[in-house]
Amino acid sequence: MTFLKMLESIRTPFWDQVAAAVTLLGEETFFMLVGLALVWCFDKRWGFRLLFVGLTGTVLNQLLKAVFLIPRPWVIDPEFTIVETARAGATGYSFPSGHTQSAACVLGMLALWPAYHVSEQRHVLRDEIFPLNVAYNVYLSASEFRKAYNFEKTSADFTYEASREAEAPGREIYVYIIGEASRAMSWELYGYERETNPRLSQVDDLVIFRDVLTQSNTTHKSVPLILSSVSTEEHDQLYRRKGLPALFNEAGFETWFISNQSPQGAMIDKLARDADHLIYIRSPRHDMQLLDEMRRIVETAPAQKMLFILHCYGSHFSYHQRYPREFARFKPDDDVAISREHAHTLRNAYDNSICYTDHFLAETIAFLRGLRQTSSALLYCADHGEDILDDDRERFLHASPTTTAYQLYVASLAWFSDAYRRNFPAKAAAAGINETAPATTHALFHTMADMASIRGRFVDPTVSLVNPGYDRKRPRRYLNDHNEAVPFRKTGLEPEDMEIFARFGIKP
């Protein structure tokens, strides 16, 4: 009442007329006219939406009035003076205001209409307006869980109809290494000022892919896409198609999926189960254990055609736990609180984890190089990058709703044995040509298939980085939190991020 009496004290006949005119925006007649105009003249769906909102709002308004039972102001205080022209329409209880609610519905819907029809962001209401966004997120999570749960059924009859267009004599071993949280900015191979790749820097026949962006900044989305032929534009097909192990199985390979991460019951595990052999390593989960397992298998298994998928723990937080203490190259690297004052220590630990990845990859290459009468090839790529309190934004980790250059730009490389280069010279040469080609992690599945000369349904050579016909003009897309394929510039990137990309010659 205090506020209403303040307004009463400054009333004038003119402003009374203005208020009366504004009140008309909340009248049912105005509401109906706007809704019908939308239906007949502009957009039927939006017209019906507005009318539906009006109907449900009116019902809800009356229910709330019956709950609160708040009288009109002049009933509460007889000294309060009403605008007489408004008395006829001011019946019943006062809260919540029907006029205010109706006006908000009309103007709110009209404000959203251009956002849907003009803006590229066509789901403002669903994604950003509380509580509708909460309801949609719950629905989306439940829907994705259901699809993943039913994967065995929905993909049961799927086949790649795979075949090989060429084979190498003797033994063939293909190694597909999925890194974890390894951003290219922290690799010496990409120009980082620290010596984080002391061993890989000495590998002369390494192929470094310098323009690879992840399709998602979170593991549970990125890795299934890495293991699948599915692009971000056709995400729903992820639950109908089998992954890389199934493809290689069809082509006559014996397959191993060896993971340093715990099973989570997510799509990663669903796709991994198609491998002939599935191994989960327990603590301490240092990535050299992956090589130990692979070495044991290669030395004992009789298979001639082999695929190994190694899923690393890489540089996952806490960074100082990702490597043995003898690999603490940069110090201090203690377990510290996440804060600006500890940024240097956190960076040291992260860089040490990159050094350990460098050691692991170099040792894996050395092992493959030492195999006799074996044609082998290795492909590595991280699932996503990482923020480490890099600038004034003080962003940390990954999986945020909005991205940064640090989360998107990932390290990726390939290596081919001498025997492989002799047997498949065009593929090895194409990899070198495509070092600077713009790509996303979508290319990895197709590159791995092409490395092994596998063809089949949904295997696209134009997405393969070992193919001279790689399509450099293919649009790059990111899978956002609502599983929509969007341009990278629409993922929340800020000017700081564009400057970083420009520094590396990347056009997202």
What's the short story on this structure?
With 508 residues, the protein is of the alpha/beta class. 41% of the residues lie in helices and 12% in strands. The strands form five sheets. A seven-stranded mixed beta sheet has the order 3-11-8-2-7-5-6, sandwiched between helices. A two-stranded antiparallel ribbon has the order 1-13.
- Summarize the main sheet: 7 strands, mixed
CATH architecture of the largest domain: 3-Layer(aba) Sandwich
Low-confidence stretches: none
Strand order of the largest sheet: 3-11-8-2-7-5-6
Computed CA radius of gyration, to the nearest angstrom: 30 Å
Give the domain tally: 2
CATH topology of the largest domain: Alkaline Phosphatase, subunit A
Look at the structure and give the mean pLDDT.
88
Secondary structure: helix percent: 40-55%
CATH superfamily of the largest domain: Alkaline Phosphatase, subunit A
Structural class: alpha/beta
The first-level CATH class of the largest domain is given as Alpha Beta
Q: Outline, from the CA principal axes?
A: elongated
Task: Work out the strand percent.
Answer: 5-15%
Total count of strands: 15
Number of helices: 19
End-to-end Cα distance: 56 Å
List keywords for this structure.
Alkaline Phosphatase, subunit A, 508 residues, 19 helices, 2 domains, 15 strands, elongated, alpha/beta, two-stranded antiparallel ribbon, 7-stranded mixed sheet
